C-alpha cells in the first residue's frame, strides 16, 4: 500500500527533534508485522493512530493489518516521516546545511516543527537559560518565505514577459515556478482563491507578491508546532506566550523523552503502559489494587520509581499524555487525511485468499476531498478498473467523495484496458 503523504520533522539542534522522531517511529509495542523501518538515514515510518473500520462491524478480533497493527479497533497506520536536518537562522542564504535543508523540505506535504519550549537552548541549539522559543517559530517561517520569494524575484521580469507572451493564467505561470517545491496546480489555485486577487499577475506589486508567497507557504507547508520539553520548570510561561501568538489548533504539547522512557520500561516488563495513554501501572500499583502478583511486572528500583512518579505529576496528569501520538494526529488533521480501506470483498471485508477470515488487511491515507477515482489511482496505479463497489457490493460512482464512514471501504474490480 502507498504510504504518502510525507511528513517532515524540522527543528534546531537540541530541540528534541531526534527524540520526537524516535518516539514516533518506535514500534516496540506494536503487535502487527510491520516493524520500525528506516528507509534511509533521513526517512522512517511512523504510526498514525486512527479508529479502524473493523469496530463499526464488530470485527475487531478478525482485523489483521498487513502493516501496522489494530488493537480493539484502534489502528496504527504507517506514515512516512522525513528528518529535515540543518535548520539554523540564515538557511536560505546557505548557512549551516541551508541548501540541503531547503531541498529536503520541498518534498514534505506538512511539517512538524519541534520547538524546545523550555528556553534552555539558543537559536543555534547551544545551552542557555531564558531564551524565547517563540523566536524559533517566527524564523522557521521567515526562512521558508525568504527562500521562495528570493527564487521568484530573481526571475520576476522574465516570468512576467513570458506570462504575457503565452497568455497564461496566473495559476499556470505560478505553477511553473512553484513545481520545484512539490506544488500542484490545485495548491496554487487554493493559494490565489484564499487571497481573492483582482489585479492581473503582470501588475502585481512587491506587496502583492509577498502576500502570494506567504499564502503559498501556508498552503504548501502546513505546520504543526510541537512544543517539546513541557516538563521543564520554565516551559509554562513560554507555552502561554506562544499560545497567544499562534493558532491553538496547530499547537501540540509534548515530552518526547518521557514517551521513550515509558515505552522502554514497558518493553522491559517494569510497567504497563499503552502509548498515548495518561495511565502507567507499576507492580506496586497493581498489588495495591488487589493483584497479589502485581501483573507479573518486575519491581522498579528507587530511582526509576521516583522518576515514574515525577513523570506522572509533571506530564501525564497535567497534560493527559506525553503528547507524542497527538503530534502525528494533528499533522493528519491539518492535512485533512481520510483513512480508506481497500478490500476484495465488500460484504465479508476480506482481502486475501477466499478462505481467509482476516478483515481490513490494508489502509491508505488520502487527502481531504479525494474522490473514489483518486483512491483507485492511488491503490491500483494504471491498472484498468471496470467498476468499484462499496459496502454490501453496491456500485459506487468514481466522482463520489470519500470521508470517514462514507465510501471509505472500497473494492476495485479490474477490467480490460
From TrEMBL:
Entries under InterPro entries matching the protein: Beta-grasp_dom_sf, G_OBG, GTP-bd, P-loop_NTPase, YGR210-like_G4
Chain ranges of the OBG-type G domain: 5-274
Entry annotated with the keyword Nucleotide-binding: yes
GO cellular component: cytoplasm
Entry keyword set: GTP-binding, Hydrolase, Nucleotide-binding
Tree of life domain: Eukaryota
Keyword Methyltransferase applies: no
One Pfam family hit: YGR210-like_G4
GO molecular function, one term: ATP hydrolysis activity
Protein's recorded name: P-loop containing nucleoside triphosphate hydrolase protein
Amino acid at each position: 500500500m502507498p504510504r504518502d503523504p510525507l511528513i517532515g520533522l524540522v527543528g534546531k539542534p537540541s530541540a528534541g527533534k531526534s527524540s520526537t522522531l524516535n518516539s514516533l517511529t518506535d514500534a516496540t509495542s506494536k503487535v502487527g508485522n510491520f516493524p520500525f523501518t528506516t528507509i534511509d538515514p533521513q526517512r522512517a515510518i511512523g504510526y498514525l493512530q486512527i479508529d479502524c473500520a473493523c469496530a463499526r462491524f464488530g470485527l475487531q478480533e478478525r482485523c489483521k493489518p498487513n502493516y501496522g497493527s489494530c488493537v480493539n479497533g484502534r489502528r496504527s497506520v504507517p506514515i512516512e516521516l522525513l528528518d529535515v536536518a540543518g535548520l539554523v537562522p540564515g538557511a536560505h542564504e546557505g548557512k549551516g546545511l541551508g541548501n540541503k535543508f531547503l531541498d529536503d523540505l520541498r518534498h514534505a506535504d506538512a511539517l512538524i516543527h519541534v520547538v524546545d519550549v523550555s528556553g534552555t537552548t539558543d537559536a543555534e541549539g547551544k545551552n542557555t537559560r531564558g531564551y524565547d522559543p517563540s523566536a524559533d517559530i517566527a524564523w522557521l517561517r521567515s526562512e521558508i518565505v525568504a527562500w521562495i520569494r528570493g527564487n521568484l524575484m530573481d526571475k520576476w521580469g522574465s516570468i512576467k514577459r513570458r506570462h504575457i507572451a503565452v497568455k497564461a493564467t496566473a495559476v499556470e505561470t505560478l505553477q511553473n515556478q512553484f513545481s520545484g517545491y512539490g506544488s500542484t496546480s490545485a495548491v496554487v489555485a487554493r493559494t490565489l482563491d484564499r487571497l481573492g486577487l483582482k489585479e492581473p499577475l503582470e501588475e502585481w506589486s512587491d506587496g502583492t507578491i509577498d502576500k502570494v508567497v506567504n499564502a503559498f507557504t501556508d498552503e504548501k507547508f502546513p505546520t504543526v508546532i510541537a512544543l517539546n520539553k513541557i516538563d521543564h520548570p520554565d516551559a509554562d510561561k513560554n507555552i502561554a506566550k506562544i499560545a497567544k501568538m499562534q493558532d491553538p489548533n496547530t499547537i501540540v504539547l509534548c515530552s518526547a523523552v518521557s514517551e521513550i522512557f515509558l515505552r522502554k520500561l514497558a518493553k522491559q516488563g517494569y510497567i504497563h503502559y499503552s502509548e498515548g495513554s495518561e495511565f502507567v501501572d507499576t507492580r506496586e500499583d497493581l498489588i495495591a489494587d488487589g493483584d497479589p502478583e502485581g501483573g507479573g511486572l518486575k519491581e522498579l528500583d528507587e530511582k526509576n520509581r521516583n522518576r515514574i512518579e515525577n513523570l506522572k505529576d509533571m506530564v501525564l496528569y497535567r497534560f493527559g499524555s506525553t503528547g507524542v501520538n497527538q503530534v502525528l494526529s494533528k499533522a493528519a488533521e491539518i492535512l485533512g487525511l481520510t483513512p480508506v480501506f481497500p478490500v476484495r470483498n465488500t460484504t465479508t471485508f476480506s482481502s486475501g485468499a477466499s478462505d481467509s477470515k482476516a478483515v481490513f488487511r490494508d489502509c491508505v491515507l488520502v487527502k481531504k476531498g479525494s474522490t473514489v477515482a483518486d483512491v483507485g489511482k492511488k491503490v491500483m496505479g494504471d491498472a484498468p478498473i471496470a467498476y468499484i463497489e462499496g459496502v454490501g457490493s453496491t456500485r459506487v460512482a468514481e466522482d463520489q467523495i470519500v470521508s470517514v464512514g462514507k465510501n471509505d471501504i472500497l473494492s476495485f474490480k479490474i477490467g480490460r484496458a
